[in-house]
Amino acid sequence: MADPARRRPGRGLTVRAALALVLALTAAPLLPAAPPAVAASGPWAPDRAYLYLEGAPGAVLEDRLTVTNRSGEPLTLRLRAEAAGPWIALAARTVTVPARTRAEIPFTVTLPASTPPGGRTATITASGRGREEPVRLHLRVRGPLLAALTVEDVSYADGSIRYALVNRGNTPLTPRVALRADGLFGEVLSRPARVRAELPPGRRVTLSEPWSDPPHLDAVDIRVTAGAPGAARAEATVSRTFAAWPVTATLLTCAVTAAALVLRRRVPSRRRGRTVSERRPPGAGA
Fold first, then answer.
1. Which of 235, 28, 200, 214 is nearest to 120 (CA)?
2. What is the pLDDT of residues 75-127, one digit of tens each?
3. Is the per-residue pLDDT at 1 higher than 60?
4. How many CA atoms, within 13 angstroms, populate the side-chain half-sphere of residue 284?
5. Distances (CA, A) of 15 to 6, 18, 20, 53
6. Which of 18, 58, 134, 269 is the most exposed place for a label (fewest CB within 10 A)?
């Protein structure tokens, strides 16, 4: 962890850090009695395989990358920083390390005021003499973590269920999504929860699930349920009525046919009833 005394707001490198770079690049012989704990073997290597920094949003953190040249010749190294944003500022992009000398290259990490709490990773890579050595940078941004997930805009069209997952918290989420559909006579679709996406804070992603065999005639509630560690379960539902035309036409035909048969049976019976009621017994008057 960086010395808290070196953490201060501001931009760029401090005068003390620049002076440290000049002093570090002077020909300081290695001390055989206290060899550094190098991260890799070879004629040169960084002294640490990873660095760890911690601070609050808006802070400027300072540390240094140490490289040891074990060879008998000067070593020219090229340095580059890889991070999600222009957070890392190196004191130098190219450094020449004298033979059997250790050099320290200061750098700063600026945490924007809007940076959400949680863990971040970055890499500082040194390259020279045909090889590269990455040094992993682990950042921890202080503050309370909030995991919040929502499911939105559920719909069904063209054989697919569509929906949106939204990370409304400040920590990355890996939600698992389950699908279920219930019709008038029970369940018609059930798919167990599985990971569908990785959501950084504030990110929204639209996904779709194929459903090519919905019921031909039914009123269905389609439910999408999502959950992630630390976040409350979220779900959203859409109702859809399925009425395939061939099935509908067949049912209408059957209904019309049944109605016609009922009418056909009732009309003759009425006629026969009237005929019987109009008959008169023998000898009755007119």
1. 200
2. 999 999 987 666 899 999 999 999 999 999 999 999 988 888 887 888 999 99
3. no
4. 6
5. 12, 5, 9, 21
6. 269
